[in-house]
Automatic annotation (TrEMBL):
PANTHER family: WD REPEAT-CONTAINING PROTEIN 11. It is found in: Cytoplasm, Cytoskeleton, Cilium axoneme; Cytoplasm, Cytoskeleton, Cilium basal body; Cytoplasmic vesicle; Golgi apparatus, trans-Golgi network. One of its GO terms (biological process) is cilium assembly. Pfam families: Beta-prop_WDR11_1st, Beta-prop_WDR11_2nd, TPR_WDR11. Residues 490-832 form the WDR11 second beta-propeller domain. This is WD repeat-containing protein 11. Residues 1228-1248 are annotated as: Disordered. Residues 22-319 form the WDR11 first beta-propeller domain. It comes from Esox lucius. InterPro entries: Beta-prop_WDR11_1st, Beta-prop_WDR11_2nd, TPR_WDR11, WD40/YVTN_repeat-like_dom_sf, WD40_repeat_dom_sf, WD40_rpt, WDR11. One of its GO terms (cellular component) is axoneme. Keywords: Cell projection, Cytoplasm, Cytoplasmic vesicle, Cytoskeleton, Golgi apparatus, Nucleus, Phosphoprotein, Repeat, WD repeat.
């Protein structure tokens, strides 16, 4: 058996229950790996890996309507540490930004007093990490500084704003979903409010817009059910007044989100379909429709790592739909067979989880997915449950019937961005992009003989948190801790619920200990009769005669055995009002509404006395704490001793008998302690009748004696409750008066509290503790009965917004309150509801979350994992490393290391894991968005350039390797990296996209846009066909016909080239930029076109054009200029610039930039990786950078206390490093430096 240690100090905590409807949208899963969820006015912080609540934040007065974790898209250092920041908004318009670990508020923000409609942190964090955008009803968006609470700007719009979505590829784009349509803002910036009112767009179906006849394919397939749904495709149109039809279309729209997996795509969610829009064309390019019998959608979350959608349905089922691969048509022309031609984006259902039972009170509210790995989903249910689903991939057997229509999914071979070594360990299902390969997206079948595995996806329920059921509750804390029971005490709280079950919580951990189904109706009261058993009673609703069914059950906790304590009694009798167990747990009084009370013996379960009909009606009753147990025990001891002496004298010769006698005695002893029949101590109780007269009754064995009566006190009304402890007796009445009796001094003192009916009064446990907890209809108070004064008070409307349903003491200085918001709160005596510090908590399972550590310790932990092996050995024990720090902090770091999964530990200790893989894995573990982005792109391009080197193609720096050399295992970067992808793949993707737009176009504008795109992509034949489609009555007919002629007749003769170039430059000078660029592209002067675009500030367009049209050398010039622009102070997107330079292979420049931005850890590790892969030679120019980066990293490690690591990096940094090495180990030979001194020197260095 595990030795049971008692934690006598209970933490203040909140046990939460069902959610309010306003909490529906208040749930978020952060990069930090935790889930935040609003529950009434509190916020739960849940760890999904161990499924336990690790913090409850209390400060809001109104229901929480939105919660959002801060993004982690910045480089973390001591000045920008790993910290848990959360913004929450409530129905009264208040926003609080929390420091979650300490449970305190960074700042509180209030603009209006209406519920916040939507809010989110800005995802670009180069300029500032603290910016928060919020929608204040009805029509304002306000940008706040979430650290200081300052308002940066405010902007109002014409319509009511329902929600918004940031463009994940372009920080200046924002889309607002309003009550009438969508507003696109393209000049969003943190420095000033958007200038214009944005571009308003209405949603309408094609029938409402002027029809554009589109060529019908020769063999049109017969429309099936799904195809019919597609014929009703909705478009985006920008005309001013929408038709009636369009308005209803917009009113149904549940959600709008940009797709993070590919640029310029957006989804609109309707109850029965999801529309995928291509924003360049403002037209639907894909529809996910539900059949007539299907279950409607509530919410959809698009993934970033793959083009996939997590959808939540009304029955609580989560489905994963993955975009079907489109077979890219040959570049020679469009695909010949219309069936093969791309018709639209199709999302195939790949996996779904089980639904829940939906009732009036139980319905799914929201789903969130893990942003780091995108393979875990959590579902919040209205009854307070949180279901944690994990997506698992398992190797599929090749299908028997391949005609099922679904193309197979393949899993990638690489692990953490690098090919898997021969004996390398890997983590199964690390993230979505390691579960599904890219072959799906491109549509090319996997090359023959490649070791890809076909996989199928499944959802697994890996965790479940459940809350309290609906109120009302009846609370009772188990008997208090004493010196006798300290070795096996557990602080258990019994909670009786409205459905008849009794929940027992262990308050040390706050976890449910037992859930016992005891009664068939609402539990009205609970009384403990020992540390492990209790009595509870419930009454059914009364029949016509006013009689009920009473259930009084005795429950034994360890076994869960229940039996009816009153036997057959209980049917058709007046309701039980209360029951009271005596102090020695010998007797039980049961009080009925219109029937005399019953007195029971708890130990034997026998009825001692049923009072006569003439017995007065009881209004309040309490047992006296005094009894004669001590004197009885003394007498018994004397008798025993005598008995023992006699026995041993008479049987002196039989020593064998002696032992048996003693065992007999021990037997008797244990019986008497278990409350056998050996001793029956005398106990008393007092009660009052309807006139306020106090009766005193003595019980001994089965004797019941009537004692003295005390006449009523004139100042008191009808007595409602009594409490007795020591020499103090307190009476409370229905008018809010408290009467304190000092029995020793025979004094009484009445105090009017003016708070109405005194519902309950209870003395605190503990010897000499005379604190009293009083419950009223509108709150509670704590009184000190020694001094007769009030210690603290809680009142509805004044300092809380919930009503108190029941109260009790859980320790001598903590109270527990049940409230009508479905929560049970353990509070300090001051009854201030406060969040607790996370690091003071006793968690049952250790939680992996480096954010809980001190900033310095979190960075140390990261360095410890990144710099394995330490002095040649892989270890997960920080004490084996030369690390100068307080033991307490070392212990906390070690706890974090221990809480990692065994798989993760074995992979991190695998010598096969290369540096790039390690960096990627650690950035995933830490949920570090900026690190993850950087290392994903770095790993990809380092390997592809290294491979090009090995093929001895001397690729000049700043130029992408040629298409033929793409032999890296993953082939290309995912399209979610947009312009960072290889040109050849980017081109193919853009071509595919134009073909799709072509199929979908439904008006002249659409056709024109498609033709323009095709010209830029160099698809002249197809563009001419589109230009010739223009109908003769169209005003642009003449213009388009001439353009078609021009495109077909362009020859590369000198004069025509120069003429066209002149015309193009004139056009550009006169504001026709797009037309001029097209002409330049026609004569293969795309490089000039890019320069013009950049001059006119169209940087993204220029990058796009460079990717699809230019040769590597020209393209890299354009992109380098873009990177310089991104670094300029007014743009300030250096992190993006670094990624662009990585994709060009300018590794030396990247190293310099990282070092100059003081990202010392990233710079050193990156340069090390470059040296490992042989893409950076150690020559004079690079040596300077290498030694500077390494020595700065060594200094950083020294400031973290990792001396061994500092010495290793300093030893590789040339002359500068030698000096640092001397500093590190100066005086080491003579005397080891004591720890304190070393810390002081460190502090000084940090200050410098």
């Amino acid at each position: 058996m595990i030795p049971y240690t008692v934690n006598i100090k209970l933490a203040a905590r909140t046990l939460t229950g069902t959610l309010n409807l306003q909490n529906k949208t208040a749930v978020d899963w952060g990069w930090q790996g935790l889930i935040a969820q609003g529950c009434h006015s509190s916020i739960l912080i849940i760890d999904p890996k161990t499924s336990q609540t690790i913090q409850v934040l209390e400060r809001h007065k109104a229901n929480v309507v939105k919660v959002k974790w801060c993004r982690e898209n910045y480089h973390h250092s001591l000045s920008a540490p790993y910290s848990l920041r959360l913004a929450s908004a409530d129905a009264a318009g208040k926003i609080i930004v929390w420091d979650v670990v300490s449970g305190t508020a960074h700042c509180e923000i209030q603009e209006h007093s209406k519920p916040i409609q939507d809010m989110d942190w800005l995802w670009t964090q180069d300029a500032s990490r603290d910016l928060l955008l919020a929608v204040h009803p009805p029509n304002y968006i306000v940008l706040w500084n979430g650290d200081t609470g300052t308002k940066l700007w405010k902007k109002s719009y014409a319509e009511n704003i329902l929600s918004f979505s940031f463009d994940p590829f372009e920080p200046s784009n924002l889309a607002l979903l309003t009550s009438e349509g969508i507003v696109f803002i393209s000049d969003f910036s943190h420095s000033k409010p958007p200038g214009s009112g944005g571009k308003k767009v209405y949603i309408a179906s094609p029938h409402a817009s002027p029809a554009h006849t589109k060529p019908v394919p020769a063999v049109a397939p017969a429309p099936t059910g799904a195809k019919k749904a597609l014929n009703k495709v909705k478009v985006l149109i920008t005309n001013e007044k929408p038709t009636v039809e369009a308005v209803t279309l917009n009113a149904d729209c549940l959600q709008l989100s940009y797709l993070p997996s590919k640029r310029n795509h957006m989804l609109l969610l309707y109850p029965r379909e999801i529309l995928i829009l291509d924003l360049e064309l403002s037209q639907t390019v894909g529809v996910v429709a539900i059949e007539r019998s299907g279950v409607p959608f509530i919410q959809v979350i698009p993934c970033a790592q793959r083009d996939a959608l997590f959808c939540l349905h009304e029955n609580g089922c989560i489905t994963l739909r993955v975009c079907r691969s489109t077979n890219a048509p040959d570049e020679s022309g469009a695909a010949t067979d219309p069936e093969q031609c791309v018709q639209e984006l199709v999302y195939d259902l790949r996996s779904q989880c089980d639904a829940i039972r939906v009732t009036k009170t139980v319905r799914p509210y929201r789903m969130v997915i893990c942003p780091v790995n995108e393979n875990n989903a959590a579902l919040a249910v209205s009854d307070g449950r949180v279901m944690l689903w994990e997506l698992k991939a398992h190797v599929a057997k090749p299908a028997l019937n391949p005609c099922s229509g679904l193309s197979p999914l393949y899993s990638p071979v690489a692990f953490c961005g690098s090919p898997l070594g021969q004996n390398q360990k890997k983590i199964q299902d690390l993230s979505l992009n390691t579960m599904i390969g890219q072959s799906l997206v491109l549509g090319a079948d996997p090359p023959p003989g490649s070791p890809q595995q076909e996989v199928q996806l499944k959802f697994l329920l890996t965790g479940l948190l459940s809350g309290l059921p609906l109120p009302p509750f009846a609370l009772r804390m188990c008997p208090p801790l004493t010196t006798k029971n300290i070795n096996h005490y557990q602080p258990l709280l019994a909670v009786g619920t409205s459905n008849g079950s009794v929940l027992v919580y262990n308050l040390t951990s706050g976890l449910l200990h037992k859930d016992l189904s005891v009664h068939s109706c609402e539990v009205k009261g609970i009384e403990w009769v020992s540390l492990t058993s209790f009595l509870s009673f419930a009454t059914s609703s009364p029949n016509n005669a006013g009689l009920v069914r009473n259930e009084l059950q005795h429950v034994d906790l360890p076994t869960g055995r229940c039996f009816a304590f009153r036997g057959e009694r209980g049917n058709d009798e007046p309701a039980i009002e209360m029951m009271k167990v005596s102090h020695l747990k010998q007797y039980l009084v049961v009080v009925f509404r219109d029937k005399p009370l019953e007195l029971w013996d708890v130990r034997t379960g026998t009825l001692l006395r049923e009072m006569a009909k003439s017995f007065p009606t009881v209004t309040a009753l309490e047992w006296s704490p005094s009894h004669n147990l001590k004197s009885l025990k003394k007498k018994q001891m004397l008798a025993r001793e005598a008995m023992a002496r006699q026995t041993t004298l008479s049987d002196a010769e039989q020593s064998s008998v002696e032992s048996s006698v003693i065992s007999l005695l021990q037997d008797a002893e244990s019986k008497s302690e278990g409350g056998g029949q050996a001793i029956s101590a005398r106990e008393h109780f007092v009660f009052t009748d309807t006139d306020g007269q106090v009766y005193h009754i003595t019980v001994e064995g089965n004797m019941v004696k009537d004692g003295a009566r005390i006449p009523p006190d004139g100042s008191m009304g009808s007595i409602a409750c009594i409490a007795w402890k020591g020499d103090t007796l307190v009476l409370g009445d229905v008018d809010g008066n408290l009467n304190f009796w000092d029995l020793k001094a025979r004094l009484s003192r009445g105090i009017p509290t003016h708070r109405g009916w005194v519902k309950k009064i209870r003395f605190a446990p503990g010897k000499g503790n005379q604190k009293l907890l009083v419950m009223y209809t509108d709150g509670a108070e704590v009184w000190d009965t020694k001094e007769v004064n009030m210690v603290s008070s809680l009142r509805i409307g004044r300092n809380v917004n919930y009503r108190i349903l029941d109260i009790d003491w859980c320790t001598s200085d903590k109270v527990v309150l049940a409230s009508d918001d479905g929560c049970i709160r353990v509070l300090e005596m001051a009854m201030k509801s406060a969040s607790y510090r996370m690091d003071e908590q006793d968690l049952t399972d250790p939680v992996w979350c480096p954010y809980l550590l001190l900033p310095r310790a979190a960075l140390t932990l990261k360095a410890f994992l990144l710099l394995q092996p330490w002095s040649g050995t892989f270890t997960m024990d920080i004490s084996q490393v030369d690390y100068i720090e307080k033991d307490e902090i070392k212990g906390l770091i070690q706890e974090q290391l221990n809480s990692m999964s065994n798989d993760m530990k074995s992979v991190l200790q695998d010598p096969e894991l290369n540096l790039l893989q390690r960096c990627l894995l650690v950035s995933r573990l830490f949920g570090d968005e900026s690190d993850l982005q950087f290392w994903t792109v770095a790993a990809h391009y380092l390997q592809s350039f290294a491979q090009a080197h090995q093929l001895s193609l001397s690729v000049p720096e700043g130029q992408a390797p040629l298409e033929g050399t793409q032999t890296t295992p993953q082939g290309h970067l995912d399209i979610c990296h947009d312009t960072l992808c290889e040109s050849f793949y980017f081109q193919r993707f853009q071509l595919e996209r134009v073909h799709l737009q072509e199929v979908k176009r439904s008006s002249y504008e659409h056709t024109k846009k498609c033709a323009d795109q095709l010209l830029l992509l160099g698809q002249t034949d197809r563009a001419v066909q589109l230009l010739l489609e223009t109908s003769a009555d169209n005003p642009s007919y003449y213009c388009d016909s001439l353009k078609a002629c021009l495109v077909t007749t362009i020859t590369s003769s000198g004069p025509s080239q120069s003429t066209i170039k002149l015309v193009a430059t004139n056009m550009i000078a006169n504001g026709k930029l797009a037309e001029g660029v097209q002409l330049l592209c026609l004569i293969d002067k795309a490089a000039d076109a890019c320069r013009y675009l950049q001059t006119y500030g169209e940087w993204n367009r220029a990058a796009w054009l460079a990717k699809v049209r230019l040769n590597p050398a020209e393209s890299s010039d354009v992109l380098k200029r873009w990177a310089e622009h991104l670094c300029s102070p007014q743009v300030n997107q250096k992190s993006k610039a670094i990624l662009v330079l990585l994709s060009l292979g300018c590794f030396h420049k990247v190293g310099e930039m990282l070092h100059s931005m003081r990202y010392f850890d990233r710079a050193a590790l990156f340069i090390e990786a470059c040296l490992n892969f042989g893409v950076m030679e150690a020559n004079d120019s690079s040596n300077k950078l290498i030694s500077a980066a390494f020595v700065d990293y060594a200094r950083l490690l020294r400031s973290l206390g990792l001396r061994e690591g500092a010495a290793f990096w300093a030893s590789r940094a040339g002359d500068a490093g030698e000096q640092l090495l001397e500093e590190l180990f100066e005086g080491e030979e003579a005397v080891p430096v004591p720890e304190e001194e070393e810390e002081e020197t460190e502090a000084l260095e940090n200050a410098e």
